[in-house]
Write a structure and sequence with these properties.
Elements lengths: L1 H57 L4 H15 L2 E6 L11 E5 L5 E5 L1 H13 L7 E9 L7 E10 L5 E2 L8 E11 L10 H11 L4 H8 L4 E6 L6 E10 L5 E9 L1 H50 L15 H70 L4 H33 L6 E4 L1 H11 L1 H6 L3 E7 L4 E4 H18 L5 E8 L3 E9 L32 H11 L3 E6 L3 E9 L1
Parallel strand pairs: 3-5, 12-14
Antiparallel strand pairs: 1-10, 2-3, 2-7, 4-5, 4-7, 5-6, 8-9, 9-10, 11-13, 14-15, 15-17, 16-17
GO biological process, one term: cellular response to phosphate starvation
Pfam families: HAMP, HATPase_c, HisKA
Keywords: ATP-binding, Cell membrane, Coiled coil, Kinase, Membrane, Nucleotide-binding, Phosphoprotein, Transferase, Transmembrane, Transmembrane helix, Two-component regulatory system
């Protein structure tokens, strides 16, 4: 029952939410879409008309410019536009027209607004363009003396195309033949524009009613609902009065058809009805699968939580709820108590205790070894200096004084070197040194270090041979890296056979530079290879001060290489020992 409980809850909740949301969308479309779109459309046309009137008045357009702008307005806003006086008489030339130039040079403007209402498709198919020769039968209007002659066509004929319009009686119609010099027609997508509807509106609305005339005198924009009597189409007429620079009042009249909005809304209502029925079934199906999808992992988590009571895994914080999620919450809560209290606290304390004990023992051992080794290393030179100083005090023979002074100075220098190494090691281990990295060739650094050890090399008759393959510069602290090379060379010289060769190979690629140093001599015991990096460690069991050094050189080298993030190792060869360092370019 519990497993069905969460599934059923999710299913019902999902169905209710989706149905409410889906129903609100459909209901809003059915009830408010038409009014919203009509208001949006009218507001858009109204704003465009106000911009048109502002430019028309301020820029004092010519009749030709006004006609052009009217065509642009109608194309962009899908509305008809004209300019009339307060009596309703047109002051704007017909925006849609063609101008013919006769053989004698006279111009005739052929008005097309009414003609397009009846023969728009035929006119479009005729593809009339500039340069075409037309013969037009119609009625001439020559009332305007200074303006071109206007013809209202009955029939238009173009060679190669069928005649457009009604048959005419030549005795009752005027005939004009000429070449098209101007063509103002709607865009391809706007050939259904019914400019004649505008003139029907003018005939019905003018003369204006007293209330409308008062608004015109007050220069107020007015919107009039108008239904075309023949077809019953619903339209919105916007009248915007303007005052020209000549002081005359003219009316910008725009007619916007709202019939398409009504037809679209009616179709949408039927569409949403079918869509709602189909959507309801889809919501139920999706809600079922959604609830199953969500509840299935929750049920699995409930079983997992019960296993977690036995400390099988760890989980996040529990959530309280009266269903499977509630069971999961209780199980997680119990798991948290058992796991956090019984395991985490105990394990953390044990681990911390062991770590503290190991660290304490290691630190004590390191301190004891350090003090023991340091005191041992310092005790020997101090004893020698003391004994030789007492000899000088007791008046040793003059022939031995120089030797005693040399021994005292030599032991003092050894002690100074030991103290310097101890200080360097302490600084390196404390990480208080700031590396000053530069780019340099490793072979140059090794050559420089070898020159400092020339006497040690001659003493054992040793040669240092450096071989490099496509060597690239490395980026490191040159001073500290020289100390590494010196320590490696000193160790190699100390344990090399007399008369042998110390070989150094340097190889570079795009990513790394490898340094390999080999000498010929005794191997390092395998069980002590890891100990050579420890402080005060000497390879000789006798810990001879003459050959074993201070025991700090390789410890210092290790700290320097670690600070440079280098990889390094030491390994035995058949006849010697090899040191390897990997530098990252």
């Amino acid at each position: 029952m519990k497993r069905k409980g969460i599934t059923l809850k999710l299913f019902l909740l999902t169905v209710v939410v989706f149905i409410c949301f889906y129903g609100m969308i459909i209901l809003a479309h059915m009830l408010f879409f038409q009014d919203f779109y009509q208001k949006y459309k009218i507001k858009d046309v109204e704003s465009a008309l106000e911009r048109f009137s502002e430019h028309y008045v301020n820029e004092d357009w010519s009749a030709h410019r006004a006609s052009r702008e009217a065509v642009k307005f109608m194309s962009e806003n899908k509305s008809q536009l004209t300019i009339v006086d307060t009596d309703g008489d047109l002051t704007l030339n017909d925006p849609y027209h063609i101008t013919l130039k006769q053989k004698d040079g006279t111009l005739v403007v052929v008005s097309l607004s009414f003609f397009m209402n009846t023969y728009g498709q035929e006119l479009k198919a005729a593809a009339i363009d500039k340069g075409s020769t037309l013969t037009v039968w119609g009625a001439l209007d020559q009332e305007q003396k200074d303006a071109p002659t206007v013809m209202y066509p009955f029939q238009i004929t173009q060679k190669g195309f069928p005649s457009i319009g009604e048959d005419v009686d030549a005795s009752y119609a005027d005939k004009v033949t000429g070449e098209v010099v101007e063509r103002v027609l709607p865009r391809s997508k706007a050939w259904n524009t019914q400019q004649g509807l505008l003139f029907d509106a003018l005939n019905e609305l003018f003369p204006l009613k007293p209330a409308q005339e008062k608004k015109v005198k007050d220069m107020k924009l007015q919107k009039i609902d108008w239904t075309e009597p023949w077809s019953g189409t619903h339209n919105m007429v916007i009248i915007d009065p303007v005052k020209t620079k000549a002081g005359e009042t003219e009316l910008l009249v725009s007619v916007t058809s709202l019939q398409e909005v009504q037809d679209t809304n009616n179709a949408l209502q039927l569409f949403y009805l079918y869509l709602g029925i189909g959507g309801l079934f889809l919501i139920i199906i999706l809600s079922f699968f959604f609830s199953r999808l969500v509840s299935k992992p929750l049920i699995k988590l409930d079983k997992m939580a019960k296993r977690m009571v036995k400390l099988d895994f760890t989980v996040d914080s529990p959530v309280r709820q009266k269903d499977e999620i509630g069971n999961l919450s209780n199980s997680m809560l119990l798991m948290a108590r058992n796991l956090d209290q019984a395991l985490k606290e105990l394990e953390e304390k044990n681990v911390q205790l062991l770590a503290d004990m190991e660290q304490k023992n290691e630190m004590e051992k390191i301190q004891q070894d350090f003090f023991a080794n340091a005191s041992h290393e310092l005790k020997t030179p101090l004893s020698i200096i003391k004994s030789f100083a007492e000899g000088l005090k007791d008046g040793i023979g003059a022939n031995k004084q120089d030797h005693y002074f040399e021994v005292i100075v030599e032991e003092a220098e050894k002690m100074e070197g030991l103290l310097t190494d101890m200080l360097d090691l302490a600084k390196l281990e404390a990480r208080t040194i700031k590396l000053r990295k530069t780019s340099f060739l490793l072979s140059d650094l090794i050559d420089k270090a070898s020159n400092k050890l020339v006497y040690s090399l001659k003493e054992k008759d040793l040669d240092v041979v450096i071989g490099s393959t496509k060597e690239l510069p490395i980026v490191a602290d040159c001073g500290w890296m020289e100390k590494v090379m010196l320590n490696f060379l000193v160790n190699s010289i100390r344990h090399a056979e007399k008369g042998s060769t110390i070989s150094i190979d340097i190889e570079s690629d795009d990513h790394d530079t490898t340094f390999i140093l080999r000498n010929r001599g005794d191997n390092i015991p395998e069980d002590t290879l890891d100990h050579i990096w420890k402080r005060f460690y000497r390879g000789e069991l006798s810990r001879s001060r003459q050959t074993g050094g201070t025991g700090l050189g390789l410890s210092i080298a290790q700290q320097i290489l670690d600070m440079h993030h280098c990889e390094y190792k030491v390994e035995n060869l058949e006849d010697g020992v090899q040191f390897t360092i990997l530098f990252t370019n």
